[in-house]
Design a protein that fits this description.
Low-confidence stretches: 332-345
CATH class: Alpha Beta
Radius of gyration: 19 Å
Largest sheet: 8 strands, parallel
Helix content: 40-55%
CATH topology: TIM Barrel
Length: 345
């Protein structure tokens, strides 16, 4: 397992991709997960993309990329034919540059609650679209790894993957975003692990609010996730999984005490909700003991003033833990191998 960074973390530093790679190397990180492919090269110049890959290889860094549009036909604003064309071009370009695990998402979270089309329809239409895209993915040996982006639960993503085929669709596991749906982080990560090929690695704490709870992002090791438990689980299924730290501030509010919110989470069991509430209570105790700062006061410090410190802290914590758990330096033969028996026509 290697520890890198999702470059969304670096947005306020105003660095181009080559400068980002130099910064990442200097900080002791081991790779980069970039955003949309066409964001790296707005002119869609394959030479630029391959130069980024070459520079990363020269520095000994891994790289991953995202597709530039949502996989959700309910929100993309394109005809199906245009949607397929846009993604086909990106998949072909990504594969030609050596990128085969492609980050994607179905939304940002609000669609689940506010969009006029019911969320169940978003999921079913997205599954149908991905089935139509799957021949292109198989042809180029690529997979779309859908993020737990505050929109989908792990339960929903697993059902979608099993419907479309795990050779074409996987999970980009945002380790803290699973909390958006009151999923216990350890349980959620264990559910997602067999399907996880990319990560947005972050930690978080949560506190009660009048309508539910508020979540605060923190560097790995500072929050509520039990990394010593979940890292071996992830490594069991993907020994060389890139742990790409996505760091930011902001407080996120979730209205889990309200009937509408609960109705949109039919997979959430009483036991898991209880474990999540217990996690919130433990965060409250840590805050009362002075182990955690007041969340609102801490948020007043601009992220750009702390980004290097927070990244270094998270990187050092994960690398030391990976080393202690014996999860580093896995041989090439341990790379995940796609089970052809699971492929669906």
């Amino acid at each position: 397992m290697k520890v890198g960074v999702d470059t969304f973390t670096l947005r306020d530093l105003k660095l181009d991709p080559f400068q980002q790679l130099d910064y990442i190397k200097k900080l002791g990180l081991e790779g980069a997960q970039f955003g949309g492919l066409w964001g790296l090269s707005p002119t869609r110049d394959g030479g630029v993309l391959k130069a980024i890959q070459a520079r990363a290889a020269e520095l000994g860094l891994y790289t991953e990329v995202s597709v530039s549009v949502t996989l959700n036909p309910c929100t993309v604003g394109l005809s199906e034919a245009e949607h397929l064309r846009v993604l086909t071009e990106e998949i072909e370009m990504a594969a030609s540059c050596g990128w085969h695990e492609l980050h994607g998402s179905l939304g940002g979270g609000d669609e689940r609650y506010l969009h006029p089309v019911p969320w169940t329809r978003h999921l079913s239409d997205s599954a149908l679209f991905l089935r139509k895209l799957s021949p292109v993915l198989r042809q180029h040996g690529c997979r779309i790894d859908l993020e737990t982006h505050g929109d989908c639960t792990t339960f929903e993503l697993i059902r979608l993957i099993e419907e479309v085929g795990p050779d074409c669709v996987g999970i980009c596991l945002d380790t803290a975003n699973v909390m958006c749906h009151c999923e216990d982080p350890t349980a959620a990560i264990k559910r997602a692990a067999p399907y996880t090929h990319l990560t947005h690695t972050k930690d978080a704490v949560a506190y009660f609010s009048e309508r539910g709870f508020v979540r605060q992002t923190l560097p790995p090791g500072r929050g509520a996730i039990d990394w010593a438990v979940v890292l071996p689980v992830l490594a069991e299924f993907s020994p060389n999984l890139p742990m790409s730290i996505e760091d930011h501030k902001w407080l996120f509010y979730f209205h889990c005490f309200e009937p509408q919110w609960l109705a949109l989470h039919p997979d959430l069991t009483r036991d898991e909700l209880a474990r999540f509430m217990q996690m919130i209570w433990r965060c409250h105790q840590r805050r009362q003991a002075g182990d955690l700062p007041d969340p609102h006061e801490y948020e007043k410090i601009p992220h750009v003033e702390e980004v290097t410190e927070r990244l270094k802290e998270g990187c050092d914590y994960l690398k030391n833990l990976i080393r202690r758990l014996g999860l580093e330096n896995r041989p090439e033969g341990c790379k995940r191998i796609r089970d052809l028996s699971l492929m669906k026509p």
